[in-house]
Design brief:
about 100 residues, alpha+beta, four-stranded antiparallel beta sheet, elongated
């Protein structure tokens, strides 16, 4: 489906499609381990091509531990988000 062909009313202030989703386990030793669901979206209202895609990673046990990054490609958004999820995990676990 080509979402660019769907006219979005002015009342639709945000719109995105899911590009992909996966789950990852990140481990920095026993005390800093997390199971993340990472979802990559395409922003259907993006005006900046450098931020057309964004990724969100949320830790399954503790949804407060998460990461959110935007990039020009879905792969870059996922890569940056995974890196940030590891940083968030270590901070949350005090490591």
């Amino acid at each position: 489906m080509d979402w660019q062909q769907i006219p979005l009313a002015d009342a639709v202030v945000e719109a995105a499609r899911v590009v992909g989703e996966a789950e990852f386990v990140i481990e920095f030793g026993e005390k800093a381990r997390g199971w993340f669901r990472l979802t990559v979206f395409e922003d259907l209202r993006a005006s900046d091509p450098a931020a057309r895609y964004y990724a969100r990673a949320v830790e399954k046990e503790d949804p407060q531990v998460q990461a959110f990054l935007a990039a020009a490609t879905p792969e870059e958004a996922a890569t940056l988000c995974l890196r940030e999820a590891g940083v968030s995990l270590r901070r949350a676990r005090g490591r």
